[in-house]
Structures are given as C-alpha cells and as structure tokens.
Amino acid sequence: MEIREGIFGEVNGQEVKIFTLINGSGMELSCINYGCTITKVLVPDQNGKVENVVLGFDSIEEYINHSPFFGCVVGRVAGRIANSQFELDGITYDLPNNEGVNHLHGGDHGFDKVIWDAKVEKGADELKVIFTHKSSDGTAGYPGNVTVSITYTLNNKNELDIFYHATTDKKTLINLTNHSYFNLSGDLKRDILEHELTLKSDHFLKLSDSLLPTGELEAVDGTAFDFRDGRELKDGVQSDHQQNKLVGGGYDHPLVLSTNREEEICLIDHQAGRKLIVETDEPSVVLYTSNMMADDFEVRGVTARKYLGVCLETQHQPDAIHHPTFPSILLDKDEEYRTSTKYRFSVM
C-alpha cells in the first residue's frame, strides 16, 4: 500500500495538494484538499482493466470554472434550503441564495470551495487522508463556530469509507455528503443509462416545482422509483411520471432507505462487469442522474452531457429544517455529528 502526495494547483495564493492512495488490490483513490474533492477512483473491470469510474478534472482551474460539485464534500448543509433562510430558537438566519431564491449545497462559498488542512496516515491494511476545517460563526449565514473533519479510508478490500465528524459551540445545522458522480463503464466510455441500480427503499420524497421536498412521502410501487428488484436508470428518463419529468427526465430525488449497513444500494454496469455497493447509516440517499449537466465543457476529453454520471448522495433529507417530520439536522454545542458511508467496488 502506498500514499503519494503532490501539488495540484493554487487558489488565491494557497497551494492545493493532491493525495493518491494505492492499495494492494488494484484500486487507486486520488483526492485534493480543495473541497475534499475525489478526482479519480481507479478500479478493475471484469477483465482486470483498471479505469477511472468517477467524473473529475486534472486542473484546479477546471474545478473552479466548470465543476457541478464533482467529487466534493458539500455543506454546511447538502441540498436546498427553501427561501434561503431558517429559524432557530426565535432567530431568523438568512443564507445566500445561489439557486433562484433558494440556498443550495452551502452556497457559493460552501465547504466545496474551502482549502482544507490535510494529513495522511498509513497502516498495515488501510490508508487514510484526514481533512479538517474550522468554519467561523456567521460563515454563509450559519450560526456557530464549527470544527469539521472528513476522513477517507482505503483498504485492501477495495472499500472506500468516508467518515464525517463535526462539533459546534452554538446550535446550528449540519448535513454533509460526498457529491461524486459515478460512471462504472470506465473512463466515460458510455453514459449511465444502462447502469442497473438496486436500492432498498419503499418511499421517495415528492418534489415541488422548485425541486424542494413538499414533505409528502410517495410509495415507489408501480413507478420508475421502485429499485427494490433492480432496474436500469434509463427507466426514469423514459418515464411519464410527473416527478421524473419535473427534474428534466430522470432522477434528482431523495429516496428513504428502508435499511442500513445491509448492501442497501447496489450499482452495476453489466458491460464492464463492475459493481458498487454503498452502505451507510444515513436515512436517505439523493439519486441524481445529472439531468441538468451543461454541455459547454469537457471532462477529461469527453464533452459533458446529461446522464454522464450518477450521484448517490447519502444524507439526511434535504430542507429538513422546514419539515419537523424529517430526521433532524440540528447540531447543538454538547453534541457530535458523526456519520459514515462505505463504497465497495468489485466485479460480477
């Protein structure tokens, strides 16, 4: 097992570092301390050919100019917050609106734009990169001085474990996720419409016209949102369901997980023979099939387009602060925010 470190670029006079973790089973993970961004995940296909299975760039300038949150950690709060404001203990907090009147993924200067402190740890059976950041009270309108750490751990079982931890000195909101776009075909040879997804979920959240949860749970039965027995992602693109049409054809929806830590999410590309199992302690996953990806930039020589990648954003439900029936995203000063998600790569 090996860890390599280098310089990826520079942002406002600060160096951006890149870390490459190489295990003994043919897997490599590359990440930078700008947004804790995963730039590459190299894994073998069924014939042993090692290729990249996430969308990303080779320069910091491309991340700054073009990235639709490729591979980064988003926060303080993942997803949309209605009308860019919320109330805590009688105080109204105003957030920057970066998607119409709403606040998305922590705003234009969220965790994805931060240069994090980073250190590496090498063990006998695993490699780690530990990113840390202190977010000051009032940053992007959020209360509390928040200390955050994100740990990426790679082992010899071709498993990537992402562990999130945060503390605060004042009640605040926290809901973090990694925003990687997966494409198991390898090096973007095909789009993800023929990827097969199996997902243990009986309900999804209905969205409003502004793509915010209405608070209503919809049963997946008889819809393109029923992944319990596996289905190809193109089913959502071809669906006449109003919710699939609403997001531009496909998915951009939170699905409520019916179980945890039991191979609850499985993504397969049958042609390459690659399989990704995702296990988490989070209550939901936002499934996004890049329906809104622009086509005015390139991703490592491939023109960006709709359906080039699929996001599996494990998290609490979006806009939870405005829905008391959703699991809470409040973090108080005497509490710790702790959550983790594991990604296991294998072949058929």
Q: Can you tell me about this structure?
A:
With about 350 residues, the chain is mainly β. The chain has a single domain, classed as Beta-galactosidase, Chain A, domain 5. About 5% of the residues lie in helices and about 45% in strands. It is built from three helices and 30 strands. The longest helix is centred in the first third of the chain and has 7 residues. The two termini are about 25 Å apart.
Characteristics of this structure?
single chain; 348 residues; mainly beta; Beta-galactosidase, Chain A, domain 5; 9-stranded antiparallel beta sheet; 30 strands; globular; EC 5.1.3.3; aldose 1-epimerase activity; Gal_mutarotase_sf_dom
- Tell me about the largest β-sheet: 9 strands, antiparallel
> What's the architecture in CATH terms?
Distorted Sandwich
- CATH fold type: Beta-galactosidase, Chain A, domain 5
Strand order of the largest sheet: 11-12-13-14-30-24-23-18-21
Q: Total domains, how many?
A: 1
| CATH class label | Mainly Beta
Helical run tally: 3
Question: Percent helix among the residues?
Answer: under 10%
What is the CA-based Rg, rounded? 19 Å
Short structural summary:
By secondary structure, the chain is mainly beta.
Produce the secondary structure layout.
Elements: E1 2-11, E2 14-22, E3 28-32, E4 37-44, E5 50-52, H1 60-66, E6 73-74, E7 80-81, E8 85-88, E9 91-94, E10 103-104, E11 117-122, E12 126-135, E13 146-155, E14 159-168, E15 172-173, E16 177-178, E17 181-182, E18 196-199, E19 201-207, E20 213-219, E21 231-232, H2 234-238, H3 242-246, E22 252-257, E23 265-269, E24 274-280, E25 284-288, E26 298-299, E27 302-303, E28 310-315, E29 330-331, E30 337-347
Antiparallel strand pairs: 1-2, 2-3, 3-4, 4-5, 6-16, 7-10, 8-9, 11-12, 12-13, 13-14, 14-30, 15-29, 17-28, 18-21, 18-23, 19-20, 19-22, 22-25, 23-24, 24-30, 25-28, 26-27
